[in-house]
Amino acid sequence: MRMPYNAHLMMDYGAMSLATSVVLSVAAVTMRQTMIRTALTVYLVFALPHLVIHIRLLHHLTPGQRVPLLTALTAAVVIPLALLALTRRARQKS
Predict the structure, then answer these.
(1) Which of 54, 58, 69, 71 has minimal Cβ neighbours within 10 Å of its Cβ?
(2) What does the CA dihedral 43, 11, 73, 26 come to, rounded to 10 degrees?
(3) What is the C-alpha to C-alpha distance for residues 62 and 36, in angstroms, rounded to an integer?
(4) What is the DSSP letter of 57?
(5) Using CA atoms, how far apart are residues 94 and 86, in angstroms rounded to an integer?
(6) Torsions phi, psi for 42 (to 5 deg)
């Protein structure tokens, strides 16, 4: 994308990703509904803006590159949304 590499930004992003993985891991291990919903929401707070940013930066990609990228990034939003909906249904049943 012809953007300058920023080591500090990459280390900060890595630390944030690691912190997010801790929250997702605790949710997966404990299987507590509140923790699962919190973890999915945390991930969505990242995934949705990430999708929007990449939609705005598609000009440098070929159509063959755009489709798999947008498919993966859209799935990264749709899957947690679907899981959140499932946790809502489970909550209403109990």
Answers:
(1) 71
(2) -30
(3) 37
(4) T
(5) 13
(6) -55, -45
Q: 17 exposed, middle or buried (CB, 10 Å; 0-12, 13-18, 19+)?
A: exposed
Could you list the pLDDT tens digit for every one of the 94 residues in the chain? Answer: 667 889 999 999 999 999 999 999 999 999 999 999 999 999 999 999 999 999 998 988 999 999 999 999 999 999 999 999 999 876 676 6
80's tokens:
């947690």
Supply the pTM of this predicted model: 0.83
Per DSSP, the three-state class of 2 is coil
